[in-house]
Amino acid sequence: MTKPIVAIVGRANVGKSTFFNKVCGKRISIVDDVAGVTRDRLYADATWSGRDFTIVDTGGVEMSSEDVFQKEIMEQVLAAIENANVIVFLVDGKTGVTQSDEDVAKLLRKQKVPVVLVVNKLDTFDRSATYEFYSLGLGDPMPISCAQGKGIGDVLDKVISYFPHELPEQDVSGLKISLVGRPNVGKSSLVNRLLGKKRVVVSDIEGTTRDSVVVPFRCNKKDYNLIDTAGLRRQRGVEKQSVEGYSVLRSMSAIEMSDVVLIVFDATAEISEQDVRIAGYVHEAGKPSVILVNKWDARGTQGARQCSKDEFVKILQEKLSFMSYFKVLFVSALDGTGLSQIMNTVDEVFENASRRITTGVLNDILHDAILNHEPPSKGGRKCKIMFVTQAATNPPKFVFFCKEPQFINFAYERYLENRLRERVDFSGTPILLSFKGKEEE
Fold first, then answer.
1. Any alpha helices (H) in 196-287, and if so which ranges?
2. How far apart (Å, rounded) are the C-alpha atoms in residues 431 and 390?
């Protein structure tokens, strides 16, 4: 079952970002350590009472404002609302009802999505301060104080009450594969090519988001399932720019359901921040993937960029430095170039993600790595890695047992990952490294 989506909506300065950070349990900064991966992130995973969900922050809505950015903010808000299972409408209890609040409430009353009306900044928790918000016509206002952490649990109880009941995943045979990418890169054409001209039976999986369906198909005498997300298509009332800005959000459920993700790029266009953002989400979700550079037949045509395969790979290595393990195919949905390689490569990256390495082999790799480059030390104290074992697959996870694990820095972790990848084929899949001290054994 995929995670429900909760969108936070409201005018500026009512505390949406503070509420977002409180629910996530951490502060989500605008710029991440890895440039380009999570920049401008507006979403995060959260859990309440055993229910996992994705929470989405949005910009402040001021419909009467003439600010040049307001149109873009509204497009993003509309896209977030359209994809949400529940909306949290946040208002300011100190200021009271404003015209902007009424404008947003009018918009939300037209939606078919449940709305939880939340009155923030009630530090004294005076419930009588919520009474005027009944005029917004969105049910009982719920008082909270984000600054003091009061009332947030009650709001989340209300939010998860609207989630669909958890149902077991439908039993489907074969790998589940999704295609993700920004609009107009050719996903629909590739879907049609993979499925053939005649689509087979489409079956809805109960409990998933509204737009996700699983389409079974057969290739090379093997069964597969394509996760088709209608939400990637342009929706009525939502302009193209908002679909572009929120295509990550629209792709999340498909990625979560997938065994392998096909990330589609456009060979005729520059690699955009949105391309990188989508690839970053696949990486963070721990899914094996294949990059499909589509429209390769059209490169160099009028208005399209000219680039060799080697040049394009170098650009990918620069833009996707956080996932240097990527596998790439140059394809054309129009003339069929490279399409015969897709499913074999899907099988390959899934096999790599499912690979299990014996503890003996892992410790041989570790021993050689330490001989070439010892772990970091600090103040005369040395980090000693005693042994390593594999804890999981899909994605592969390796646990290193150490003395002074806190001395392991990003550079040494990357060094160990590279040594593992040199000796074992983990192409196309992320791998996770964890370092535990003796007290954690």
1. 240-245, 247-257, 273-284
2. 11
At the fourth CATH level, which superfamily is domain 175-353?
P-loop containing nucleotide triphosphate hydrolases (3.40.50.300)
Instruction: Say which DSSP state 4 is in.
Output: P
pLDDT tens profile 222-242: 889 888 654 333 334 334 444
User: Cα(133)–Cα(117) distance, rounded to whole angstroms?
Assistant: 9
CATH numeric code, 359-440: 3.30.300.20
- Distance (Å, whole) CA 24 – CA 46: 5
175-353 and 5-161 share a CATH fold: yes
Q: Report the distance separating Cα 246 and Cα 233, nearest Å.
A: 11
Segment 246-305, tens digit of pLDDT: 455 556 777 888 999 999 999 988 898 888 988 998 999 999 999 999 999 887 664 556
Tell me the β-bridge partners of 402.
385, 437
Q: Where are the alpha helices (DSSP H) in 118-267?
A: 152-161, 187-195, 240-245, 247-257
Q: Which CATH superfamily is domain 5-161 in?
A: P-loop containing nucleotide triphosphate hydrolases (3.40.50.300)
- H-helix or E-strand containing 318? helix 309-319
Contact present, 57 and 17 (Cβ < 8 Å):
yes
Closest CA to 187 of 237, 224, 228, 235: 228
Round to whole Å and give the CA distance between 21 and 29: 9
